Amino acid sequence: MRKGELLRKPVRDIEPTDSVEDLVSAMGKAGGFTAKKVAEGVDILERMERTECTKFLSFPAALMATGTRGILRTMVEKRLVDVVITTCGTVDHDLARTWRDYYHGSFEMDDAALHRLGVNRLGNVLVPNESYGIVLEKKVQPILEELWDSGKRSLSTRELLWEFGERADSRKSFLWWCWKNKIPVFIPAILDGSFGYQLWSFWQDHKEFRIDEFRDESDLSDIVYTAKKTGALIVGGGVSKHHTIWWNQFREGLDYAVYITTAPEWDGSLSGARMREGISWGKVKEQAAQVTIEGDASVLLPLMLSALQQRLSRKEKKARAKARSSRHR
Fold first, then answer.
1. Cβ distance 84 to 239 under 8 Å?
2. How confident is the model over 73-129, as pLDDT tens digits?
3. What CATH number should be reported for the domain holding residue 288?
């Protein structure tokens, strides 16, 4: 490689701006460590929107307990994704917050004292028992009885979550918008959470009740095998990340991938594995547009999705103006 080929793009300073999209674009020109990766991530998400691409969203449950729930909800409300793969706690927190509030806390609180008060701490979010397990038991069991009485004995997680999304009946609910826009939600580890416990508890007196996860896998198979291209916004690791990249290996890997993580690469975990590692497994294509962004998703997702929406809106307005101009010529 020649020196002249290396030294083509000078580093530019970031100037304050009122526009999130302009800020992120400036971050891309700044060449500043993670800032440049954030800008690359937004570029890739935009490319996913501009191409005929089946878009996956994968994330762990904890974000649903925070205000970032609104960003995730907006993604399905605006149809920025086609498929969701997540964990059982997503259902826990989305439904619980539909019916009750969570509260501000801090990382430094006395956990023993909180336990005695019946308040659970999730990072710096406080989840009182009455806003979590108690309300879920009160609300979930009657819905399961209703499904049972209507003759539904076996449901995939996709089918089950649409049923609960419809009954959440709240525009603040992530699951409600998934049901409304018919965006499938898959939870491979459906029993790993409070909602999963309610399913098990219901099964104790309804032994014919089944969660048919094989049907979920068939649905995922149909999605990946019929997709012309696939892309994914993946937050964190665990089963939701792995299930997303696992299924995409059967179509020779993702075409686009944006990964947000706080985990170190050297611990050998899936959470720490950068997207480039997935290339060796055939889960990400060799020529894929991909980036791993290190940082807190509760900060990065609002920034990136706001920039993406502004960019798409600007381009849509320009396209409409151009169309009007051509008609008046």
1. no
2. 999 999 999 999 999 999 999 999 999 999 999 999 999 999 999 999 999 999 999
3. 3.40.910.10
Catalytic annotation, residues: 283
Supply 31's token pair: 């060449």
Element (H, E) at 327: helix 297-327
User: Residue 94, Cα to own-chain centre: how many angstroms?
Assistant: 13
d(CA 140, CA 209): 15
Record the tokens describing residue 72, joined without a space: 């995730």
pLDDT of residue 318: 82
Rounded to an integer, what distance in angstroms lies between the CA atom of residue 227 and that of residue 76? 19
Please report whether residue 21 resides in a domain: no
Count up the domains in the chain and report the number.
1
270 in any annotated domain: yes
CB 309 within 8 A of CB 46: no
Domain that includes residue 152, residue range: 43-296
pLDDT above 90 as % of the chain: 91
C-alpha 144: how far from its chain's center? 26
